[in-house]
Amino acid sequence: MTAKNPLKTRVGIARGEEAYETTARLLDRRNFRVTGKVVLLKPNLTTLSSAESGITTDVGVCRAILERLDGCRILIGEGSGGANTWTAFEQNGYVDLARRFDAKLVNFDEVQVVRKPIPAPLHFTELPFARTVFDVDYLISAAKLKIHSLAQVTLSLKNMFGCVPRSEKLRVHPHINRGILDIAQVIYPDFAVIDGIVGNERDEVDSFPVPSDIVLAGEDALSVDQIGCRCMGVDPEEVEHLRRGTEFFGPRAIELLGPSLSEVARTYNRKRSRRGQWALWGSRVLGWVRR
User: Fold this and answer.
1) Closest CA to 23 of 163, 195, 180
2) What is the structure's pLDDT at 290?
């Protein structure tokens, strides 16, 4: 399935210390507008932690995105893996955001589940998803710049894992990298934004914040994730789902818009936290039990 010629894509980067202003400036530079569609915005609210902890998507990033949706019906959806989703919405400012933009908040763990076949399975022949994902015209991933204990990084494509119901997440975890690509064959974002104002090293749910002061955006999630990796000092070739994603979806020829990587990249610590070490061993045990 690899394309003969690389797909030409663009990824924008903006630097700044304030999430809303930095995102707004980047989106305007990219001429980002969506008109007259049913739009689903998927932030990363995996825990109750704040954006400043490095764990969750800053509500200011999402506010800037929603301001550029004209005449759209807006849904904001999440299925928090490590918290009550409604509490995560409330504590991170998304209830007020939804009210401001007349958007509907959707808890993916409370809506109808549909099972979808995977066209070219890397591990799963079918997977369950929140039906809401398929009732929209346009999907926006608003991810966080983070290291992940199992998937190496958690960016735009990994953010789609939240569309899988909580009851099924444990089944995917032992095969997370291949699972991410199986998910991407069914739901692939139309636009990807990564909040790197405060990123997180070492882990995805334990706070080890890194002020990176950047926001990334682009139409191709795989390209945005490749640049997001490099902004953390990670070679995308070392990340299984990105390396295999390039093999599966085809190579990318990325034009970088904004500051150079040498200006914005930091070296994130990738040593697993104690919780991350337990997650790794737990995932291995669960995979062995299921086999």
Assistant:
1) 195
2) 52
The first and second tokens of residue 119, run together, are 């066209």
Q: Which domain holds residue 47?
A: 7-290
Residues forming beta bridges with residue 143, ordered by sequence position: 194
Percent of the chain at pLDDT exceeding 70:
92
Between CA 228 and CA 203 the distance in angstroms is: 16
pLDDT tens-digit series, residues 173-219: 889 999 999 999 999 999 999 999 999 999 999 999 999 999 999 99
For tokens 């032992």, the residue is: 174
Please state the separation of Cα 110 from the chain's center in Å.
21
* Three-class SS state of 106: strand
The answer to whether position 200 is within a domain reads yes
Number of domains in the chain: 1
Owner of token pair 């932690």: 49
Q: Is 2 domain-assigned?
A: no
The CATH number given to whatever domain includes residue 50 is: 3.40.50
Residue 84 belongs to some domain of the structure: yes
Distance of CA 86 to the CA centre of its chain: 19
| DSSP at 272 | P
* C-alpha–C-alpha distance, residues 187 and 42, integer Å: 12
Distance between alpha carbon 186 and the CA centroid of its chain, in Å? Answer: 15
Among residues 253, 288, 84, 252, the alpha carbon closest in space to that of 174 is found at: 288
The DSSP letter of residue 79 is: -
Within-domain flag for 1:
no
